[in-house]
Design a protein that fits this description.
9 helices, Helix Hairpins, 344 residues, Alpha-Beta Plaits, alpha+beta, five-stranded antiparallel beta sheet
Amino acid sequence: MSDVLADLGDIFDGFPVEHILRVLVVLIIAVVVQLIGNRAIHRTVTQIAKRAPHRRPGQLRGADDTELAQQLMEDRQRQRAHALGSLAKSALTIFIWGVAIITILAIMGINVAPLLASAGVATAVIGFGAQQYIADYLAGISMIFEDQLGIGDTVNLGGTVLGEVEETALRYTRVRDYWGAVWYVRNGTINYVQNQSQGWLYALVEIPVPYDTDLSKVEQVVNDAGKVMGEDPQYNGILLGAPVYSAIEALTPTSAVVRINTKIVPNGNQWYAARVIRQEMKRALDEAGIHIPLDGIQVRTVPVAAEVVNTSGGKGPAAPPAATDDRSTSPPLTPRDSSTPHGP
């Protein structure tokens, strides 16, 4: 037994146990500091989000554009706090583990000074080979600090994806589209951000009505139905005003298309609001006796001239009328080549 212990002692005498313990201590400290830092950032973001003013959309009905812009942008403090918190966590992770790696190298006896001195050259080389990554990081920092988007916003990123922002990282933005798919879009590839959650949106609904309908009656019906919707509390989280009749948007061969404008609460409500408005307007128009016209097909018939007797003695299908020079009638049938078999 004593021989075994002696052999183990000889092994550990040549093993840098002290260095390994120091490395483990550095790793443990890095993990603990990161956990504490992430927890502190999370608590700070939560407190800011709780203190942020939050007004129910129903309280903003009837407000003018300036008041709406000011109050709704103040409500964005919640999204902005979450976005900055995500950025702070990423920056904290990079800083902590950068310091930890340098400390571990020093413990292992590697001279860190030459490495730091040559960091400029290494940074230039790495930067030249990783231009896309640097562009992604810079674009991500710019988008977050400029409040171009926040977590929970409905955005269209460079025409690539339309959906709700779930994560704003330094290198990418994670978006879930309205089919449920998750997109990871590199920040450096985003040429523009269409944010549909800042302020308000307009829901534009177009409804066709018959040509012979009195448009003043259509306007009255639409405005009356819109007033009822604007006062209905079930639409407090959707509508910021009553749907109103605008004017004729287009003329089609079968109808006159009228437009209905409505100022609505953003964040995905634009599609649901348009569906609800169409449903209520159709009901109101039906009750007023104004029906949406149906597209039809005009069929022109030609009188039968005679019957053709087939070779078996029975009566066959009617023969086509003879072509005439009268251009006001239907155009004559195009003759077929006798060698070509006729279809059914």
